[in-house]
Specification:
The chain is mainly α. The protein is built from three helices and no strands.
């Protein structure tokens, strides 16, 4: 049985750390947009917050979940190369639509 090298673990830990940092920063931005909505009761700010969370945080969570579940459940390569990316892109498209709606809505 071949043991993975320690460098591989370090690389994955660095990738995980950077991903989690990006997730925390994106949630901080979403929180500020949500605070703007609560302070001003501005519907476009709510749509902006929803769009940002769909654009930034949800794809990270989906990727981490698929990677973790895939390891445990033995997902095939098609899940990693097709289904997970298409799901992430669809979520991002919905997020962009929400952001566009927030920019062009009149309320």
């Amino acid at each position: 049985m071949v043991q993975p090298s320690m460098d591989l673990y370090v690389n994955y830990l660095v990738l995980l750390a950077v991903t989690l940092l990006a997730l925390v920063l994106s949630l901080a931005i979403v929180f500020q947009a949500y605070r703007g909505y609560r302070r001003n009761r501005s519907q476009p700010m709510l749509w902006l917050a929803v769009g940002l969370v769909l654009l930034t945080a949800v794809p990270f969570v989906v990727s981490l979940t698929v990677a973790s579940a895939g390891t445990a459940l033995g997902f095939g390569p098609v899940v990693y190369t097709y289904y997970a990316p298409i799901l992430n892109r669809l979520i991002e498209v919905v997020g962009l639509v929400c952001i566009l709606y927030s920019l062009y809505s009149r309320s």
